[in-house]
Amino acid sequence: MSKTSPWRSSFAVRLFLVAALAAAAFLGAYGFWSPSTGTTAGETSTDETGPTSEMEVASFTSAESGTCLTWDIDAKGEISNFQSISCAEPHRFEVAAREDLSTYPTSEFGPDAKRPDVTRQNALRDELCASSTLGYLHGKWDPAGKYDIASVLPPSNAWDKGDRTLLCGLQTTDETGVPQLSTGNVEAVDQAVVAKAGECRSIDDKQIMRTVDCAQPHQLETVSVVNLGERFPDGYPAGEELDTYLNETCTAAAEKYLGGEENLYQSTLQPFWGSVSEASWNGGSRSVNCSLMHPNNGSFSIITGSATGGRAALTIDGAPPAQQPERNPIRNNASAAPSAAPSAAPGAAAPTPAVAPAQ
């Protein structure tokens, strides 16, 4: 699988990390030392070297299609407690298929073969996992969503003993590529990539979006998550209908987030929303973010501070928010953008990167 969107971190890095993490987790959970033999538990103290016979090879995991895997990661990045678990519980990897590389058409993965490097792992993922994983999901997968197709190989000690198991499956990662906990089977959950309310998002010069502390420079402050499937249960909505709904919904969410329409007006920020393409909708994504932004010549202004702290907490492009003109009190809940904002509807004037799924 190839991910071309710059809003997604490198999938190759993710694949390497999940394989490395799973290997380390297995070693951490089972690779304790036996003081009586000086060997790893499960090994023998024989002087013989080389892989065991095919009859004696045991897989590093019994996980089958539909099983989920999880492991613990502490504050130092140490990993332990690698185990199979129900997908209804928080987990880090959902197994879609189980492959045996010893049956590979060539002798590439024979008894004396070295464990594949990251480049070869990527190729194996594309060759062996893409089709089987899509079949497992019955085609319901959003390549632009939060779940990636990945593979897991045995840890080095298991590989050296002859284990040629390869697990194909799905994972979601953070911005550094570390597999994150998720709950439920991928086919049955919302696959959209969304930020949480209160999180601020920075867009770098490569159009990569990251979550940052709101005290740091950013372009978007998330005010809510909207599940479009609840409003449009019968299928993908038409563009105008969707924009009208999100205009009203995100303006109301922004006012609630800031404590009222007057606070939104005084902040000089505009409501803004993401989008879901029809392809993503069909693949299983339903949610978008409502956010706050400030336009700057067709792009985003750089904001520091959270809008929840009021005007005094904000700088916009290095300066305090512009002084808003006095006006008569608003006596209704009109969904239009604040009068001092650009004439375009909220979100319409923002640049293309912002309507990409938040990550």
TrEMBL record:
Mind telling me which InterPro entries this protein's record contains? Septum_form
Domain Septum formation-related: residue ranges: 66-290
Biased composition range(s): Low complexity: 334-359
Give the signal peptide, or none: 1-24
Domain of life per record: Bacteria
Q: Give the UniProt keywords, A-Z.
A: Signal
Instruction: Give the span(s) annotated as Disordered.
Output: 312-359
Q: Does the keyword Signal apply?
A: yes
| Name of protein | Septum formation-related domain-containing protein
What is the source species? Corynebacterium striatum
